[in-house]
Input
Amino acid sequence: MPEGHVLHRLAGEQQELATSTLRVSSPQGRFADGAASLDGRVLEGVEAVGKHLLHRFEDRALHTHLGMRGVWYRSAPPSPEPRPSMRVRLAAPDVAWDLMAPITCEVLDPAGVAALRDRLGPDPLRDDADPERFVSALIADRRALGVTLLDQSVLAGAGNVFRTEALFACGLHPARSSATLAPEEAQALWDTLAGMMRRGVEDGRIITVDVPAGADRLDVPEEEARRVYKRERCADCGADVVTFEQGGRTAYVCPVQQRGDS
Output
């Protein structure tokens, strides 16, 4: 499932639709009523909240969540006819975006948007994020760190890759109880996540290893781009990476630099 940096990057790219009167359709037909309610309206802007994307019109918003299989496709005129499998097409005079296989595609009124925001934790990539809310929620939670960080009501936008790499960078074991963290440890974890996720938006991928001066970050092979995630050995010290299931995902731990679970 795409993590928050992907959605924020998409939001930035799709700002090219803003201020245009959009032709909105549902080639697949499953979103026909929603598309009809948005067709012919001016798009005010696009924003990401965690793993959710909001296309804002005057009194309503198109809310989408990609899930595991969802994908947005861009095409510039003359745009080909959308494939029948597309859930929705957003077409401006100069560009079109097609969405396929989202887990969520719905129209929300202002109350619905507010409800969505209320059920999500702070998003490190948003300027309006409240780090203190994250710190308070984290240290009040008795679950393991690796579980708590995947709870979108605690932290919006982070998935398994950012969970893994941020815990490693902070020297924290994912099995440690969140409630045992000192506030300054929780704040350091937030700062680390925010930095990694912002870099992910810039790079268009998650790269957490150091890159030599003068080298192109984007040239780092995907299998070497992280320190412990999906690696057999820690990129920093060479220790064998330990894996186990946690929160429905695979946790990756360096036993040397993330020692102990308490």
Notes: The chain is about 25% helix and 20% strand. Helices lie at 4-13, 32-38, 110-119, 131-139, 145-148, 160-169, 183-203. The mean pLDDT is 96.
